[in-house]
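Run log, item B.
One chain of 214 residues. Sequence copied directly from the ordering sheet:
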Amino acid sequence: MIFDLDGTLFQTETLLLPAYHATFDQMKAEGTYIGETPPESAILGSLGMLLEHIWQRVMPDVDMAVHRRADELLLDYQMKGLANREGSLYEGVADTLSALHAQGIRLFIASNGLEGYVKGVMEFKGLSPIFEGLYSAGEFQTRSKVVLVKKLLDIYGVKSAWMVGDRSSDVEAGIENGLTVVGCDYAGFRKEGELEDAHVRIAQFSDILALIEK
């Protein structure tokens, strides 16, 4: 099973939003960014995209150097938040993943996030040991999740898998790579219709166990 991270395993907003406001506060203090902090909806509605594309939507009229500074600050504040035990997994995620691992199912993550963030969340939540691979666009410099998932499948010799996620990029990555797509219908970040092409949808993460029994 290949899992997206944000909006699938991790309640992103519980860590992201404090770091988001701290990032803009710092950039305004430095003079790097001038004006009001963009609304939270701007970044929450962009989750699932590559970070560079997120900033293009959140701050479309600033220099690229501001985007890169935002990268640095956001990651730093998120790592500090994780170290302070901020940020929450969705209900049932830890127990369900442990149950899947106990059944001998190979577990992977494929995320469009930065390498430090993806690995940091799994490490601080104590889940790294049960995953065979933690793949991120930040580490492999991939331009789409389709390519990232294909790289993962090729490197690990995976011939059959489920792609589990909450955004259209997850659905596309699964279908384009010939995988069964499980759409997570509980995060609320997606736009209407993003999960229409998923093979099945789940209302809570633990529903995956029932799907396996079927």
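Observations after the first pass:
- The chain has two domains: 2-11+89-213, 13-83.
- Residues 13-83 form one domain.
Flagged for discussion on Thursday.
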